[in-house]
Sequence to fold (767 residues):
Amino acid sequence: MNAKRTLSLMLCVCLLLLMLTAFSACGGKSKTLDLTDYTVVYDADFEAGFKWQVTALTKRITAHTGLKLSSVSAKREEGEKEILIGATGRAATEKLLAEISGHGYAFAVVEDKLVIVGTTKLLTVKAMQVFADACLLDEGDSSVTVPKTVVSDVDMLTVSPDFAVVYSALLNDQPAPEGGAANDGPDYAFEMAEKVQKGLRETLSAKSKFALAKDSKTANKEVLVGLVERDAVGTFLQDMDVNDYGFGVVEGRVVITGLNGAGLGSAVDLFLEAVKADTADDGGTKSLQIPADFKWISTKSSGAVTDFPRPTGADIALTGSVDAGEGSMLYHYTGKGVNADAYRAYLTSLAGAGYALVQENEIEGSLFATYQSAEKNQLLYVSYMAFAHAKSQKVETYDPAIRIVAAKATGSGNVFDDGLLTPHYDYVKVTDTRVTSLRFNYAAASGMCYVVQLEDGSFVVLDGGYKAGQDYTRLYKVLEDLHKQAFGRAPSAAEPIVITAWYLTHGHGDHYQNFVELCKAYGSKIELKYLIGNNLSDEQAYNSHDPNHTIRNTMHTVFGYTKGETKYLKVHAGQKLYLCNMELEVLFAPEDIYPLTIDVFNTASVVTRSTFTATDGSGNAVGERTTLLWLGDQMTRGSEYLRAMYGEGLKSDIVQAAHHGLSAVEIALYILVEPEIVLWPNSLARLTDVVSNTNASGYKRVSAILYQNLDSVKYHIFADTYNTTVTITGDGPDMTLGGDTGLYNAGESAPIVITEGTKDISAVVKK
Fold:
């Protein structure tokens, strides 16, 4: 438990003890009861949520007394030794209830029975909470001392049909278009707001009432669903962690929330169960009353790593989380106290708790670090997201945040070999770096596939393309040709093609299928060492239009097609991986879009930048480094994030045009990148109409400006006609024809032709 929660609990306990002292002064007496052989008996009308609260109380009694108690419904025949919870119908319960005036709750020892009861079911929950915090603070013996406590005339909030059901304005609240994708409707949190509205209307017989409203407007009477912009929600969240959920009343508003989707769903179910349980019917008029200071927080284990030090300090709060997939959980801290100093103080606390620094990085004022605890089997990816360029780039979505992605160190994707984390040039150089754009027949299929050959002759394959005909054979011939040139002989089972990494930007079929087919057909001559990517959770992909989890769910089958052991590496923003003479720096991973949702699956594309270092063959770097920005199928939301985070720091020599030059990122992003070469994962013939009109709107205008008007661009390389191979040396990319390092058509015999101007259709266009 973090320090803030501990302090909050201590303050609550002190207040409760003061309250109980006042009640005792009014005539209440304490009695000590030995609970050996007692049975917990609860209201026969309790539904699941209320039974869970009984279970939670029973566990606290067990922790205090050491006794293992059973719990049963009040329908059971009455026994002598009972702990009575709620409206059990027992005489002892009725006797204590009679002492309460108006709405209220009580607990006491009555006729050798421990009675805990409220005038409503929610007030019974309140009674259980107060009793536990007052009487079950520490481990003791089998006895419990119970001060007779009767609380009357409790203030109640009447929830009426004129309350607005409020949701976050950040959410997509539009219904799925007719005939659209099944996963293309409203965001989950908005659906939960609709569920609350429907439940209140049905239970309170209030058709067309409880209007839905965004949190951009404030009303006096509100039911707040999810992480909406209200101080009441922030107050409610203070004592919650990622596995917690619940509802309550804060400052006259009903708050229903969890820190993530799973928690919110459970909170809504709990609230609606309480609504049905406590809605009163007075002559046909239905009403719902909730104690004005009520808070009900429950916990459901998600398997997330939770027991690690947390950021502390004034005005720093956990304000959200998201299941980041494969056992990882994102913790999102915001507030006025979030800054670089607070981040560094947090890193100091991690080191003090025995966590070891694995790697750290700084990019444009944002700070990143990876820490590991072997003792706890934990890996923490910690970042201070400064969004230093948000103001200049006019991006208002993001506030500075400290983020932690917590996972098991031995969990899926989290085992990084030491050699990947530091640069080293102690290999035998057999070739200069080469980048090949695999050609496709875009009239038949589409896709994206780039092959990078590193100086040791091994490869990094970017994505793969759709399965179409024999495209995988073409991919193999490219690998085979480049391998043979580097080593002087064809690959074989004994001397296979070494693919150091398959880097998968995201899981759409046009980015993985061709590579999978390659592994199936030629796996006996291929060694695949790593799969680099970041597979989404179901929560992240909930409303992402057309998610595809094939690789996430079957990657170990793919690993079985090739030689040797293949490891999956789940990467996060700020990480650097060193693959021979290529540094791969992660700039964006799917969880980074939070607090926004992944509106389309393309936004899940991992964005990285490759930095190629040329060496002299003796382990020494020579010349200038060349940078290549891989955007995958990134879209507008990701583009805004990149601009706000990195600004001019995005400048790269080469850029891969996002989403095949179709609906994608903003022209403002390309202006920041200022590339000299653009790699288009598409054919110019297919894009002719797209890139021809700079006065068009939307993505067509973006692509047209990128193709025609961006002053920095010198060459465009399209993914058709040739397997265009560019050699990168210490002098940069060689875009000449002929010679040892000029443009080359890998795996095929047709010589490359460069056309000039913007209207000619060719695979390589010199601007």
